[in-house]
DNA sequence: ATGAAAGCGCTAACAT
DNA sequence: ATGTTAGCGCTTTCAT
């Protein structure tokens, strides 16, 4: 009654061999035109869809793409997943999203599950701290590191953002508007992207003849809580910061939460430069200044990196520039 | 060299039959303890993962769950996908997320793709306006309608929110604080959930002896743009609204955007009650009042509805209450 | 132009 | 306790 419609069942139905049905449906020339039509009609009427499992078993490739993200609640990740998802639909790829919560063990499990599905590609925001999980990735699975990069990229391609210029601009802008005690809260040193951001900040400070106060420079896990805690302590104390530059999505939101909960007026009490550009930043107080990432373009480029065709399958690196968006907060 | 590790390759490797390997790995008792151990060790060392495709072909069920959402940019959907994704990982289910953009054709395609994967369940926020796409769903696929409900639910289970009480409370609260010209912008009549919300609003207005001004009641597509446009026109004109109640996530954000871009102070210029409770609502002006949905609980209940086991597989309906969160805006 | 056979990875059902 | 067979849906190869 409700059995799956297969080429075999259609073949039986029409009294032909299942091979004829296969040929008819896959556009092989050697099928009589009228027969092809009636087969196609019957298939459509019965709602036939070809079994992905059978294709995979035959070795046709699973057309499954895995996207490993820390979470979806941060609007940057949500926007990326959204845009990337649309690209995948256009490419007729099955997108499976896995949330790692920035936890290495979950990341490991997700890759394992992706292997079960015989996924062809994994686009991942690598969790900080661990370098090993690439070992789990089979040789035929392509890896694209997104935003963050591990120390030993090896076989992985990467799609990063070049935020050095924006961070420099942020510091310059703050100095220009009279700030000297400019704090930085960003991702830890285990990620090369984290190191880069910190370096940009430090370099920009020095370029303006300012020596970064170690008490105002905080690195650690790229989490909301980390941003919240450090923002609080950076604006308190005997020599508080007068400006803050964030180097991470969750960190930025955490820091912002801390400032707003503490009743701070931005930029009067603290000049604030966030990271990432969620839509609501422009609605908060006079608007939150921020380093904005080209989300849609990132998704497009990521999608273009999915097909191994357009170049040698050697690991490639792409980098897209960020931009500094100045609003009321600093 | 880099061929897939299968039970057969392991069997050859160890000089046993592939069935012994299968038994050893799946915990069948009839395998010598020491042999089982060496098989398991070898499998682990080689990084064996069982092929999902093969399981599916055998009819073991694909353990694939589809989640069809309008998009991921709205924080409610992102939060739901996030929480639901974690539930799926716990249940060892493969979650594939499809973005419909509230477009019936995309919805149709997504369901088709899910059929290719022989997905077992689809959790979907149905697109407005179309009732037909359920026809595409094979008899063995379970359907759970989320948040919205089509007119003819038929075989579909549903997981809705009961927001009638919150909307009534919102209206009562506004009346109590002196408002009479209370506007409502919500989802259209093609969705039973949209009709319900509108009815709650109307009923609450009447209960306070107020006759809703038709010019202040707007329904349509549940989109950002729809909310933006209608909010603008509702606060302008000769007899503008003094308060606004929103009945939809995107509508709420769109309306909020319109108000903030127009430079309105909430609640001085307009008392505002949003829908959904994105984290940033509490950061805007004095905080945006809103109808809050129990996202995590929705995800948990949705996950519990995935297994057909705990009751007859007849369509079930669950409904979770929303709550009214009052902040500064109204 | 059409069909039959084989094999992809796996396990239930039979041997042994 | 271990091995052999068959079949899930599909296409490639080899007949007819």
> Greatest interface and its residue counts?
A-B, 54 and 54 residues
Q: Based on DSSP secondary structure assignment, what is the total number of beta strands of chain A?
A: 12
Kindly name the structural category of chain A: alpha/beta
Lateral arrangement of strands in the main beta sheet of chain A: 2-1-3-4-5-11
- The CATH architecture of the largest domain in chain A is 3-Layer(aba) Sandwich
- Helical fraction of chain A: 25-40%
Annotate the secondary structure layout.
The structure is a homodimer of 330-residue chains.
Chain A: H1 7-14, H2 18-26, H3 33-46, H4 52-58, E1 64-69, H5 75-90, E2 94-99, H6 104-116, E3 121-124, E4 142-146, E5 157-162, H7 164-176, E6 182-187, H8 192-207, E7 217-220, H9 224-235, E8 243-247, H10 249-261, E9 271-275, E10 289-292, H11 295-304, E11 317-321, E12 323-325
Helix pairs in contact in A: 1-2, 1-3, 2-3, 5-11, 7-8, 9-10
The structure holds a DNA duplex (16 and 16 nucleotides).
């Amino acid at each position: 009654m409700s059995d799956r419609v297969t080429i075999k069942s259609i073949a039986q139905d029409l009294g032909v061999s299942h091979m004829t049905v296969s040929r008819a449906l896959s556009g092989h020339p050697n099928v009589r035109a009228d027969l092809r039509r009636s087969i196609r009609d019957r298939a459509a009427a019965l709602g036939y869809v070809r079994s992905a499992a059978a294709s995979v078993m035959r070795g046709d490739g699973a057309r499954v793409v895995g996207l490993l993200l820390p979470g979806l609640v941060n609007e940057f990740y949500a926007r990326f997943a959204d845009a990337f998802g649309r690209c995948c639909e256009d490419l007729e790829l099955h997108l499976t999203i896995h949330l790692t919560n920035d936890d290495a063990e979950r990341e490991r499990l997700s890759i394992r599950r992706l292997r079960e599905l015989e996924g062809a590609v994994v686009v991942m925001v690598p969790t900080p701290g661990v370098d090993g999980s690439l070992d789990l990735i089979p040789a035929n699975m392509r890896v694209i590191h997104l935003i963050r990069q591990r120390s030993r990229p090896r076989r992985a391609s990467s799609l990063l953002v070049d935020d050095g210029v924006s961070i420099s601009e942020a510091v310059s802008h703050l100095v220009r508007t009279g700030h000297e005690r400019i704090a930085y809260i960003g991702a830890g040193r285990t990620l090369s992207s984290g190191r880069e951001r910190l370096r940009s900040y430090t370099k920009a400070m020095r370029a303006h003849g300012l020596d970064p106060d170690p008490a105002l420079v905080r690195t650690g896990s790229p989490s909301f809580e980390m941003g919240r805690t450090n923002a609080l302590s950076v604006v308190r104390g005997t020599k508080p910061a007068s400006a803050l530059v964030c180097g991470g999505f969750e960190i930025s939101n955490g820091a912002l939460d801390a400032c707003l909960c503490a009743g701070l007026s931005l930029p009067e009490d603290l000049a604030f430069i966030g990271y990432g550009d969620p839509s609501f930043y422009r609605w908060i107080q006079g608007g939150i200044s921020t380093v904005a990432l080209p989300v849609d373009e990132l998704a497009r480029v990521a999608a273009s990196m999915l097909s191994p065709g357009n170049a040698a399958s050697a690991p490639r690196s792409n980098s897209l520039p960020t931009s500094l968006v100045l609003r009321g907060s600093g």
